[in-house]
Every structure is written in C-alpha cells, then in structure tokens.
Amino acid sequence: DLRQIVWEHGRRNFALRNAGLVSIVCPITDGGPLKGIAIFNTGVQETKQIMEDDPGVKEGIFVYEVHTGRSFPGDHL
Predict the structure, then answer these.
(1) Residues 6 or more apart in contact with residue 41 via CB below 8 angstroms
(2) pTM of the model
(3) pLDDT in the model for residue 18
(4) Which residues 6+ apart lie within 8 Å of 9 measured at CB?
(5) For position 41, what pLDDT does the model report?
(6) Residue 64 pairs with which residues in a beta bridge?
(7) In angstroms, rounded to a whole number, what is the distance separating the alpha carbons of residues 61 and 2?
(8) Is the pLDDT reported for residue 77 higher than 80?
(9) CA 31 to each of CA 3, 57, 60: distance values in angstroms, whole numbers, following the listed order
(10) Distance CA 46, CA 42 (A)
C-alpha cells in the first residue's frame, strides 16, 4: 500500500533525526519537482547506504541525489 510505504518513510526520517544522522528533514511544498531535502551528518557512502535502505526508494516512489557541502562553524536552527 502506497500510504503505508510513505508513512514508513516519514517514520524512518524521524528515527534518523533522533539518532543524530540527519540534522534537517524538510518537505518542499511549492509544487516543483523537488519534494524534500535532508541534511545528513554522514559521509557520502553512508548517506547513500541510508537512502538505499529507505522504503520509498526501495519501492521506486522516491529518488534521491547526494551532494556534498559544508556550513559555517556554529550554524544551527
């Protein structure tokens, strides 16, 4: 069931944030092709592994891209 897979995707995002692996999970609601952004606290390979295990990615509902970046010291919400 599509709704259950998307629910599990969201539940997993909260778990990743609670585990300190993700700092920000942000749905994008402006109607464009991008539907969400996540800022991970992991390296590229670990991030890809985490994303490959996402239930929505596994079922072909979501696709993802990984981009490296950095922030200014002390940045936070």
Answers:
(1) 20, 21, 22, 23
(2) 0.87
(3) 96
(4) 54, 55, 56, 61, 62
(5) 93
(6) none
(7) 8
(8) no
(9) 20, 20, 20
(10) 6
- Adjacent-strand bridge partners of 39: 24
Cβ contact 51:57 at 8 Å: yes
Residue type, 44: V
C-alpha neighbours within 13 Å on the C-beta side of residue 24: 10
Give the three-state DSSP class for 15. Answer: helix
Fill in the amino acid letter for 45: Q
pLDDT digits (tens, 9 = 90+) for 7-48: 999 999 999 999 999 999 999 999 999 999 999 999 999 999
